[in-house]
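tokens incoming
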């Protein structure tokens, strides 16, 4: 359906009250969406007399994403936002989400599966290695190795990751504060976990 069939509009600002003209029906909006969008889409209905129909299409190809806002009375296209309209941050987020969801084919999905399996493996082996090296009869950390020359690089990696992933950094700060403010002041607890 050509866009001109829906557009009977004036160039005035959006009304603040419900206009006298009747609203376009949902069938008209769906016909417009089917003509304009190549993939699956969602239609969000107007929630009040001054809101709009929102048609969103999020196909597997992020370059074809579009969101269209239609005036609920005239059918006029008020906004048509696609990949070209996104800023750098929005494009980065969309690409990251698409990669995370494996939208770039089988190779992408296998890489994400391998990443997931490595995280699970690290979680399990971390606990096993800690259990094997922990002090006898305690839940504390293993004793430090005799050579401590290589501690700066891991510390730098943790610091950078804490900045790149603020929730991780915040969690680490909370653990350090808990260790300093609570555990270090309770001798029995300190002996149990150290």
């Amino acid at each position: 359906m050509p866009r001109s069939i829906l557009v009977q509009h004036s160039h005035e600002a959006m009304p603040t009250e419900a206009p006298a003209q009747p609203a376009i029906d949902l069938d008209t909006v769906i016909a417009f969406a089917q003509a304009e969008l190549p993939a699956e889409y969602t239609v969000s209905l107007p929630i009040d007399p001054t809101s709009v129909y929102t048609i969103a299409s999020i196909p597997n190809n992020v370059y074809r994403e579009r969101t269209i806002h239609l005036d609920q009375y005239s059918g006029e296209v008020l906004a048509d936002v696609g990949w070209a309209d996104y800023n750098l941050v929005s494009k980065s987020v969309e690409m990251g989400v698409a990669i995370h969801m494996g939208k770039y084919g089988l190779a992408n999905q296998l890489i994400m599966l391998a990443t997931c399996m490595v995280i699970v493996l690290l979680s399990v082996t971390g606990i096993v290695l800690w259990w094997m090296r922990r002090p006898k009869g305690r839940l504390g950390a293993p004793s430090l190795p005799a050579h401590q020359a290589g501690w700066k690089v891991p510390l730098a990696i943790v610091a950078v990751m804490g900045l790149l992933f603020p929730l991780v950094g915040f969690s680490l700060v909370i653990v350090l504060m808990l260790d300093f403010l609570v555990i270090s002041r309770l001798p029995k607890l300190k002996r149990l976990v150290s």
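note: Residues 44 and 54 are 5 Å apart (CA to CA).
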